[in-house]
């Protein structure tokens, strides 16, 4: 038995067996890493091929689009846009010409006005020189002339001008200021006869007062008020006077309020 175990070299070469096993596993690991690197390289090559394929397909699409004819609708739209652009350019040029012409006219008018103003300004300076010319000729001066005749003529001319101005002013139509009023007249109670009250109010007459439409407006608890309109001339009729005259009808009127006031 001892001889058979001593003859078996398995146990004796245990260290060699471990080294062989370790080398075997190292070999397997190296083969696995090389396989992974090969698979990674294959995937990269596949991606590159896919990218090249996509690029070629896009180039084909671009070539197809560039070679395809443009539709007539697009051409028509382009023609319309070009026509509108040309019309706008012509319009701008015409407006520019009008502006230049207007500017030239304004410049000419300014020069004319300035020349007229300068001529008027220089006129009073030359007037005394012309006025002094008769003084040089003493023979033409009437030293014994009558000042009374000149005063009468000046007064007559002044009166004629004043009379003409007054006549012209009298012919102008004068604007009469008027106001439109709506008065709210409140009775004492619901037993007051509003129709009689309205009749009494319309009896108030004066120059420049014109009564208008009227109506009965409910207030509360069966009581109504009289809403009556009128037109007055501001220079002839006072609103305070009118309200006081209405309030004098004490048997019918409790109070008077101005509901609306408008200038005509």
Automatic annotation (TrEMBL):
Output the Pfam families linked to this UniProt entry. Answer: EF-1_beta_acid, EF1_GNE
Q: Which GO terms describe its molecular function?
A: guanyl-nucleotide exchange factor activity; translation elongation factor activity
Task: Write out the ranges of the annotated region (Disordered).
Answer: 117-151
Q: Which residues form the Elongation factor 1 beta central acidic region eukaryote domain?
A: 143-169
Task: Recite the UniProt keywords alphabetically.
Answer: Coiled coil, Elongation factor, Protein biosynthesis
**Residue stretches making up the Translation elongation factor EF1B beta/delta subunit guanine nucleotide exchange domain:** 178-264
Please list the coiled coil stretches: 78-112
Example GO CC term: the record gives: eukaryotic translation elongation factor 1 complex
Task: Specify residue ranges for compositional bias: Acidic residues.
Answer: 135-151
Describe the family membership recorded for this protein in Swiss-Prot or TrEMBL: Belongs to the EF-1-beta/EF-1-delta family.
The name on file for this protein is: (Mediterranean fruit fly) hypothetical protein
Organism this protein belongs to: Ceratitis capitata (Mediterranean fruit fly)
């Amino acid at each position: 038995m001892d001889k058979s175990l001593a003859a078996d070299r398995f146990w004796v070469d245990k260290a060699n067996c471990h080294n062989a096993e370790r080398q075997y596993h190292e070999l397997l690991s190296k083969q696995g890493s090389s396989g992974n690197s090969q698979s990674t390289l294959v995937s990269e090559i596949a991606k590159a091929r896919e990218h090249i394929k996509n690029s070629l397909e896009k180039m084909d699409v671009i070539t197809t689009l560039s070679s395809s004819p443009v539709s007539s609708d697009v051409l028509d739209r382009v023609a319309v846009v070009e026509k509108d652009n040309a019309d706008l350019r012509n319009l701008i040029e015409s407006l520019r010409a009008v502006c230049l012409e207007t500017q030239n006219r304004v410049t000419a008018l300014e020069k004319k006005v300035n020349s007229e103003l300068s001529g008027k300004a220089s006129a009073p300076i030359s007037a005394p020189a012309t006025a002094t010319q008769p003084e040089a000729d003493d023979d033409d001066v009437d030293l014994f002339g009558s000042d009374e005749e000149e005063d009468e003529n000046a007064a007559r001319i002044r009166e004629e001008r004043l009379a003409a101005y007054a006549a012209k002013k009298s012919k102008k139509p004068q604007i009469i200021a008027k106001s439109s009023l709506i008065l709210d007249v409140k009775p004492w109670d619901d037993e007051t006869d509003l129709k009689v009250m309205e009749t009494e109010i319309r009896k108030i007459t004066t120059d420049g007062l014109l009564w208008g439409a009227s109506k009965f407006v409910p207030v509360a608890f069966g009581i109504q008020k009289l809403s009556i309109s009128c037109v007055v001339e501001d220079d002839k009729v006072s609103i305070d006077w009118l309200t006081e005259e209405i309030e004098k009808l004490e048997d019918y009127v409790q109070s008077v309020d101005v509901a609306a006031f408008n200038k005509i």
